[in-house]
Specification:
About 65% of the residues lie in helices and about 0% in strands. By secondary structure, it is mostly helical.
Length: about 130
């Protein structure tokens, strides 16, 4: 398990020096996965290797949301991280990596905060299950 401090340093390193990282987009995606793995491990779950919509990050989010409905609050942050990474792959513009690193940091801050204050995210409209 990668600590939140190590993840934060890795994200900031990519943000500050993306040209020095061999594959900055993949690195940020892995950091996003590591963030969600920490949540699952803290809740005594084995992080899934399954992908949802082609991404393990979304598979991990889905697994975490089953434990805690307010975890849905970070669903759009996970999707935004994937979106920024996809834009980088299309444009090869390092500014997209800067944006992706900011989104990854947002995800880190939310999950770390949620582990300290369980009610974090309950205010979000995404924290409620959609009734059919």
């Amino acid at each position: 398990m990668t600590s939140f401090s190590e993840i934060e340093r890795a994200i900031l390193s990519v943000r500050d020096r993306p040209q020095e990282v061999i594959n900055p987009a993949e690195h940020l995606l892995q950091m996003g996965e590591a963030i969600l793995e920490n949540w699952l491990i803290a809740h005594k779950q084995i992080p899934t290797q399954e992908k949802y919509e082609g991404f393990r990050l979304l598979g991990l989010h889905r697994q975490g949301a089953k434990l805690e409905p307010s975890f849905h609050a970070c669903r759009e942050t996970c999707r935004e991280l994937i979106y920024q990474i996809n834009l980088y792959h299309m444009k090869k513009d390092l500014e997209q990596i800067t944006l992706a690193s900011l989104v990854a940091m947002h995800l880190l801050l939310f999950i770390r905060g949620k582990m300290e204050i369980q009610e974090l995210g309950e205010f979000c409209c995404n924290s409620k299950a959609v009734s059919t």
